[in-house]
Write a structure and sequence with these properties.
globular; single chain; 11 strands; mainly beta; 4-stranded antiparallel beta sheet; 0% helix; 7-stranded mixed beta sheet
């Protein structure tokens, strides 16, 4: 049974930082491309950042230069380092694992950026 468990969300001030983690189990982690999505209230879920099984990364324009996605295949974990946070980064952040034969979602972790 595949599980993706996010952690590290919470309340941050504008300009602050948070680091999200997503621990994966039940799958061969290094086979999968990994991503972070987010969904703000009343908005569609949007792609934030991706890291392929080979380690290539890509980012939404709104987070380029502020967020960094990384993975540790030895720990079956993907991270999202979020710096220079803005109120518009407030959302539920979801971890996503994808492969041609299956996709999996985590349960999400709330990030709130407010003074």
């Amino acid at each position: 049974q595949v599980q993706l468990v996010e952690s590290g969300g919470g309340l941050a001030q504008p300009g602050g930082s948070l680091r999200l983690s997503c621990a994966a189990s039940g799958l061969i982690f290094n086979w999968f491309d990994m991503a972070w999505y987010r969904q703000a209230p009343g908005k569609q879920r949007e792609l934030v950042a991706t890291v392929t099984s080979g380690g290539s990364t890509n980012y939404a324009d709104s987070v380029k230069g502020r967020f960094t996605i990384s993975r540790d295949n030895a720990k079956n974990t993907v991270y999202l380092q979020m710096n220079s946070l803005k109120p518009e980064d407030t959302a539920v952040y979801y971890c996503f694992a994808s492969k041609s034969f299956g996709n999996y979602w985590g349960q999400g972790t709330q990030v709130t950026v407010s003074s």
